[in-house]
Give the backbone structure.
Amino acid sequence: MSFTLATWNINSVRLREPIVCKLLAEEGPDVLCLQECKSPVDKIPMEQFAALGYRYMVAEGQKGYNGVAILSKLPLEAAGAHDFAQLGHARHVAAKLPNGVTVHNFYVPAGGDVADREVNEKFGQKMDYLAQMRDFFHAEGPKKSILVGDLNIAPREDDVWDHKKMLKVVSHTPVEVEALAQTQDAGNWIDVTRQDIPEGLLYSWWSYRAKDWGVADKGRRLDHVWATSDISSAAHGSRVLRAARGWEKPSDHAPVFATFDL
């Protein structure tokens, strides 16, 4: 079975329903994982998505904030949702595909503006969230699994527009990068995107604050596709759909794709 998966922080699934439909119609991934849906589950516009062939959804939602959803052409079996760091936020949901692959969809807290938990509660929440993800995967020992989502960390020097300038900016600080690496190691996860695209600058997020985001190109790779080591070699075709950042009323994130032959 071959299937293509995409992950996208949509920044309000109801507000941006037209561009979700555009992606589904034009790109046709078998599975689309959305983050920051900002909607209760029953308000997600499933009728429009079902009309395009996406009749299955597993989701966790809340009004106005957070929210994660897995849309699929393939049948889905709910596989749990965890409130890491006990924040009461809808930031994780998992589903199992017919071939037995479990997909984890994450929206890790952004962490605020100051990389110091003593003065910034949000940064502490982010670090606690990552620590509990690490402990969860260490205990679970995941197999035949894919982890996607907005992890809000750009780990590599070539995942940001300027490594030295970004070292003190939340999302690229050494303490965050180390925490993400520990989480990755705990589940024996392989960064599929960088497995396929091992070198070069690569971004999935560009700030709304940039007057001309495409020309400035001060991006970060915050959105990730990982796979457990037992299936990572089946992944290929990774890409970032940069053009989506320029669609009408866009998210500040672009979708990230990967295909798996399993």
Remarks:
- Residues 73 and 214 are 32 Å apart (CA to CA).
